[in-house]
Specification:
- The chain has 163 residues and is an alpha+beta fold.
- The chain has a single domain, classed as Aminopeptidase, CATH 3.40.630.
- The protein contains four helices and seven strands; from the N terminus they run βααβββαβαββ.
- The longest helix is centred in the first third of the chain and has 18 residues.
- The protein is globular and about 45 Å long.
Length: 163
């Protein structure tokens, strides 16, 4: 397993992984929206234009996962972390995420920040195992027209509903 910064030759693989990542996030919200390869390329181009570090996990010449770090001033955000399902539970995400932690420390911070979908139990468990906890942000919005919220989320004494 090789963890390394992304290279221009990784573009097609990254476009495919970004497409898979966005589909997985969409499914967490009960949607079946698919991102087109052109949309994924636009997302990748935006990361590159903003000089966001991108790390890849490579096994036997195949890119099997990636991590994008958004860097604003000295603050590092783990923007997106994705590993192909067949390569999960092998430490790949941990190796990728360690790069974000190293970057945060190199810039004078303690650790990267994370925005997490409350339905993404996998990343929540992953981050908890690494010692992360809720800091202070909760995103609230009205349900979209026709959106059915079925999951109960407790925040302190408050009850909210989500997908």
């Amino acid at each position: 397993m090789i963890i390394r910064p992304a290279q221009t030759t990784d573009e097609l693989a990254l476009i495919g992984l970004i497409t898979e990542f966005r589909a997985a996030l969409s499914s967490l919200r009960g949607n079946d929206k698919r991102m087109s390869p052109d949309q994924a390329k636009s997302e990748l181009d935006e990361y590159c234009q903003k000089w966001f570090p991108i790390f890849t996990a490579e096994e036997t010449g195949e890119i099997i996962g990636y991590l994008v770090c958004r860097v604003e001033d000295e603050v590092v955000w783990a923007e997106s972390l994705f590993v192909q399902p067949q390569f999960r539970r092998r430490g790949v995400a941990g190796l990728l995420y360690a790069e974000a932690e190293k970057l945060a420390q190199a810039l004078g911070g303690d650790a990267p920040y994370n925005w997490v979908d409350p339905n993404n139990n996998a990343i929540i468990q992953f981050l908890r195992k690494r010692g992360y906890d809720v800091l202070n942000l909760i995103e609230l919005r009205r349900p979209y027209e026709g959106e059915h919220l079925t999951r109960v989320i407790k925040v302190g004494d408050q009850t909210f509903y989500s997908h």
